[in-house]
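FAQ
Q: What does a multi-component entry look like?
A: The components come first, one per line:
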Amino acid sequence: DAGVTQSPTHLIKTRGQQVTLRCSPKSGHDTVSWYQQALGQGPQFIFQYYEEEERQRGNFPDRFSGHQFPNYSSELNVNALLLGDSALYLCASSRGKRDRGLNEQYFGPGTRLTVT
Amino acid sequence: AQSVTQLGSHVSVSEGALVLLRCNYSSSVPPYLFWYVQYPNQGLQLLLKYTTGATLVKGINGFEAEFKKSETSFHLTKPSAHMSDAAEYFCAVGRSSNTGKLIFGQGTTLQVKP
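Then the predicted structure of the entire assembly, as tokens:
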């Protein structure tokens, strides 16, 4: 059973560019959450997608947007990249309907984004 | 609002010694509490979780944590440290009615000395 997968593993972008990160949830999961983990910090919640809609959002600017596809996979898009966007971006999947309230999230290995 | 404070950004123990990683939380509603471990260049792996019921929770790799409501704490312990336990540990809080947002602490790096 494949767990949560993310692509690419590493990415280097220039300030002002746009980036798209991808996530495939664990089999049987329909909810995807995205987190940003800056160096030496704990992950911070960006947003969560369920049934192809953004269900909840953290304190991140509109430059951060996402999408969920009918197969439950998800993309995170960041526009007008800033140096401060350099971080490890983690995707987590869970079951949105059943097991509601358990919040047991399975994390992928992350995408390391470096903005120069 | 919810928040998590992990006391001690770095903890160093000798192999075979007790591991104690401290976590205090703040929550206006009954919390769900989690400990995750992160090895270098990897994602987060769930060690254990508290939702309801028994306050002493046992997890993987010999770790356990006790939910103490009066102290708003959820400290992680392991009786005997192993070299392979060296990693970053994160405590997180979620809401029982929440759809999935987790609030993480800053993390504690555990060093295990031979």
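Q: Is there any commentary attached?
A: Sometimes. For this entry: The mean pLDDT of chain A is 91.
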